Amino acid sequence: MADLSDEHLSWPVVGTRDLHRDDWLVAMREDVVQRPGHPEETFGRLVVEHPGAVVVLALDEEDRVCCLRQYRHAAGGVFIELPAGLCDKAGEDPQLTAARELQEEVELRAEHWRHLVSLYPSAGLTDELHHLYLATGLSHADRGSFELHAEEAEMEKVWVPLADLLEAVLDGRVREGPLAAAVLTHQVLRQRGEV
Fold it and tell me: What are 2-38's pLDDT values in tens digits?
């Protein structure tokens, strides 16, 4: 049987330059990469540096998912999304980040957490890694002193039956990648009896 595991390594980088870097967490650089064993062959690759993110599939006792309608400027629209956020505290366990984001964005706390999967959304362009979680046993939790701003200030929280959300993903009405990955992974694990 073939080994289906990803292998983490780096081809030789013979040069690099920043194209954009500021006080925010995301930067862009251009690396000049050399193909192993072929020193005469180099090529440029753009890399978006990103600290990673967490995504939370918060599921209540009625089999409904807590979703957000949120404006996304880069993609040009309002998207159905799950509570999510950047892994912006160095060394913090992603599950703790997920719990904080769930509380800050939608004022929920979860009694039970299950890691669903971690995925690279676009390995050809960014080092960003998404950690997807299932959160159950939900209860209200005040967001405290956290204040929503920019696009977050306009978010709308909606509760969607999981079955409807799955159908919306499968028929292309909902196209936000992390949401689709979380819903589809959950569906497979549920069919296996693992959640």
Answer: 889 999 999 999 999 999 998 888 899 999 999 999 9
Alpha helices in 32-176 (DSSP H): 94-106, 162-170
Per DSSP, 126 falls in state B
**Using CA atoms, how far apart are residues 44 and 28, in angstroms rounded to an integer?**
13
Q: CA 77 to CA 32: how far, in whole Å?
A: 35
CA distances from 34 to 43, 127, 135, 144 (A): 7, 19, 43, 50
pTM, entire model: 0.93
What share of residues in the chain are helix, strand, coil (percent, to 5)? Answer: 20, 40, 40
- Among residues 107, 152, 156, 167, which one is catalytic? 152
The residues near 163 (Cβ < 8 Å, ≥ 6 apart) are 63
Q: Which of 132, 189, 3, 151 is nearest to 69 (CA)?
A: 151
Distance CA 122, CA 178 (A): 11
Q: 94 near 51, Cβ under 8 Å? A: no
For the chain, list the domains and their CATH numbers: 13-49 (no CATH), 53-191 (3.90.79.10)
The number of beta carbons lying within 10 Å of the beta carbon of residue 193 is 6
Q: Is 152 a catalytic residue?
A: yes
Q: How far apart are CA 190 and CA 75, in angstroms?
A: 31
Distance CA 31, CA 33 (A): 6
Cβ atoms of 74 and 62 closer than 8 Å: no
